[in-house]
Amino acid sequence: MSLPEEPLMRAVTVRDRDAGVGGLALTELPHPHAAENDVIVRVHAAGFTPGELTWPATWTDRAGRDRTPSVPGHELSGVVTGLGYGTTGLTVGQRVFGLADWARDGTLAEYTAVEARNLAPLPADVDHVTAAALPVSGLTAWQGLFDHGRLTTGQTVLIHGAAGGVGSIAVQLAREAGARVIGTGRAADRDLALDLGVTAFVDLQADRLEDIGEVDVVLDVIGGEILDRSTALVRPGGTLVTIAHPVTVHPADGRAVFFVVEPDRARLTDLAARLRDGRLRPVVGAVRPLTEAIAAFTPEKRTPGRTIIRVTED
Hints:
Blueprint: E1 8-14, E2 24-30, E3 38-47, E4 75-83, E5 95-99, E6 111-115, E7 119-121, H1 128-132, H2 135-148, E8 156-159, H3 165-176, E9 180-185, H4 190-196, E10 200-203, E11 215-220, H5 224-230, E12 234-242, E13 255-258, H6 265-277, E14 284-289, H7 293-296, E15 306-310
Parallel strand pairs: 8-9, 8-11, 9-10, 11-12, 12-13, 14-15
Antiparallel strand pairs: 1-2, 3-4, 3-6, 3-15, 4-5, 5-7
Helix pairs in contact: 2-3
């Protein structure tokens, strides 16, 4: 007697580290299995970071073993369809959003396996596309501003890339916390940054960064020369925070922190409440189907906000 065939799902995969975006393919994979403390999520919408094809975790597991073909994408919003052994806190049929593990298959697939602790319940009145734009950007902005930057009411924060995924969330959170917010970006980003709540905007291509003066916190997502030049703006006792790469030039009398975002169910729940209340608005630029996910890694033109992949129709 032959065994029944394993069900397949559509997924974007990558096999060749040297091929870059050219190595991406839309293919079929077996449905994932739930390990201990996992849930299986039917993905409705997913977010990705174009640079993740250069991340070591895209290619190898935590033990350093090759794990290709791997599925990129690490943000998701969807519905729980299965529970692994010992999983608590979530139920089948529940709407959830959150982060997939960096070193496991990601979210550009119809189904994915995720540790339950990396997910939070999604309110019924928050749509999946909006929710999928929030996990990495929202947690990065919060952790950068408050956990690492220690931003408080009345301080001044400089947010690089103020109209981008992380920056746009950071502007809104900092403004709500009572901070004075200075944003940077390109000239085309000015109107959006001002609409989000920056007090002042600096065009990095036309204005002098050094004219900003001293600030209490710098939140950087750019790195390179901009990061190095920003160290001189940190007032004594202030903090420079970056997600771009480890800091090589440190403030003269302040702290410098490089960090990688960490999952946090409680904070995701708090961010979702802000979405419902209208206090937080992720900037979604384009929404594309899974069949166009590969093209989304190299867009024809730059658009403000996050590109979100609609994997399953609501």
